Amino acid sequence: SDGRAEAPVALAVGTDGPRRARWLARHADGTTRLHVVDPLDESAPQAVLDIPGDPLPGLVDLEGTLAAWVDGGGDPGEVRIARIGRGAAPRTVAIGGRVREVHVADGEVLVVTRVGGRHRVVRVDRAGRAGRLWAGTARPRVAMGARWVAVAAGKRVLLGRRAPLREVRVARGRVSGLAVHGNRVAVFGRRPVKRSRATVARLWSRS
Fold first, then answer.
1. Above pLDDT 70, what percent of the chain?
2. What pTM does this model have?
3. pLDDT band for position 4 (50/70/90)?
4. 83-104: average pLDDT
5. pLDDT in tens, 6-51
6. Dihedral (C-alpha) 57, 121, 73, 64: value to the nearest 10 degrees?
7. Residue 122: CB partners within 8 Å, gap ≥ 6?
8. What is the CA radius of gyration of the chain?
9. 3-state percent breakdown (helix, strand, coil) of the chain, nearest 5
10. Element (H, E) at 102
11. Among 36, 80, 83, 143, which residue has the fewest nearby CB atoms (within 10 Å)?
12. How many helices (H) and strands (E) does the chain have?
């Protein structure tokens, strides 16, 4: 937002090649729209496309033309997936429980949901099929890249392309963040460094 009461509020941001930025925004009239801009050329026309439904802030992600979200008017255990600009209605995928996180990468959707006292990590592939990759009591940290998925539950870090994910390493402390590309995962955590604490990243891989 630029500070105006009627200014649109960004819900998700992505890129489309090296020259175009995409962002989903909630407007003052209640509609959600996809904006496509060239940040290097302010004179270039901005494309605006309406998004069906009511994506919830914090439960929406975007990559290229693919968007996934939990809809405010729908079931909290369902995720809606759409290729924006193609005119087709969003696909609704039942995940179960209450969805806590939504991530989009490489044409697929990764979801963290809570069912009772347990959490599940579920991947929705390009055909719309949902498959569980991990389940446990701890709320996990997750990342997806190059169709590999990393999950950190407490100190355990798991990685793989399909279930069951394999343990890569046990971290020294609680994991605060992950990034993954293929069989390499970067693990972030707070560690004591020279009488203070700092965020340290370690790079691990799986054969």
1. 99
2. 0.88
3. confident
4. 90
5. 888 889 988 877 778 888 899 988 889 888 888 888 788 788 888 8
6. 60
7. 95, 110, 111, 112, 113, 130, 131, 132, 133
8. 18
9. 0, 60, 40
10. strand 98-105
11. 83
12. 0, 19
State what percent of residues in the chain have pLDDT above 90: 57
Q: How many CB atoms lie within 10 A of CB 71?
A: 19
2 has a pLDDT exceeding 70: no
Give me the residue label for tokens 């069912």.
115
Give kind and range of the element (H or E) at residue 116.
none
Nearest CA among 26, 28, 35, 42 for reference residue 85? 35
Buried b (16+ CB within 10 A) or exposed e, 3-19: eeeeebeebbebeeeee
CB 79 within 8 A of CB 68: yes
What is the distance, to the nearest Å, from the Cα of residue 140 to the centroid of all Cα atoms in its chain? 13
Residue written as token pair 């579920």? 122
Higher pLDDT, 59 or 174: 59
Q: Which of the 8 DSSP states describes residue 114?
A: E
| Beta-bridge partner residues of 73 | none
Of 53 and 91, the one with more pLDDT: 91
Cis peptide before 164 (omega within 30 of 0): yes
Inter-residue contact 200 to 189 (CB < 8 Å): yes
| Angle, CA 64 vertex, CA 63 and CA 67 arms, to 5° | 55
